[in-house]
Amino acid sequence: MVEDVSLCFNALGGMPGPYIKWFLKSIGPAGLHKMLHGFEDKSAYAQCIFGYSSGEEGSTIHIFDGRCSGRIVEPRGSTEFGWDPIFEPEGYDKTYAEMEPALKNSISHRSKAIAALRKFLDQS
């Protein structure tokens, strides 16, 4: 099993996407927010993809995609976890960083991908 996480800005055609780790390391959360300065569209989505295979030779690789739509905002909340301070999920007035962990984990891109993976494993 492998996992990858992306943060995709719609105004930038999905960038930084899977390169978010390196963008974050280079410019930090505030810099990520500033990337959209000249754009009216601040919408984005967080994405988690799991790839799963039984490991047997020739086995099928199954892909599980979890997404959470939202928007990019000025950093708010704890800076302990990556880009959480700039991502505000759709329907909420708090960033991931401002949310209680239980709420964040229940709506996150990762939880959606895990739910799809679990459903597949339960049916297998």
Report on this structure.
It is a single chain. The protein is α+β, with helices and mostly antiparallel strands and 124 residues long. It has one domain (2-123): Alpha-Beta Complex (Maf protein). Helices cover 30% and strands 27% of the residues. The chain has 3 helices and 5 strands. The chain has helices at residues 20-34, 101-107, 109-123; strands spanning 2-9, 16-17, 43-52, 62-72, 87-89. It has a 5-stranded antiparallel sheet. The two termini are 16 Å apart. The mean pLDDT is 95.
State the distance separating the first and last CA atoms. 16 Å
* Fraction in beta strands: 25-35%
Structural class label: alpha+beta
Number of domains: 1
Shape: globular
GO molecular function, one term: metal ion binding
Main location: cytoplasm
GO cellular component, one term: cytoplasm
Protein name: XTP/dITP diphosphatase
The gist of it:
The chain has helices at residues 20-34, 101-107, 109-123; strands at 2-9, 16-17, 43-52, 62-72, 87-89. The chain is an alpha+beta fold and 124 residues long.
Topology:
Layout: E1 2-9, E2 16-17, H1 20-34, E3 43-52, E4 62-72, E5 87-89, H2 101-107, H3 109-123
Antiparallel strand pairs: 1-2, 1-3, 3-4, 4-5
Catalytic activity: ITP + H2O = IMP + diphosphate + H(+); dITP + H2O = dIMP + diphosphate + H(+); N(6)-hydroxy-dATP + H2O = N(6)-hydroxy-dAMP + diphosphate + H(+)
Family: Belongs to the HAM1 NTPase family.
Main location: cytoplasm
Salient structural properties:
30% helix; 5 strands; Maf protein; single chain; alpha+beta
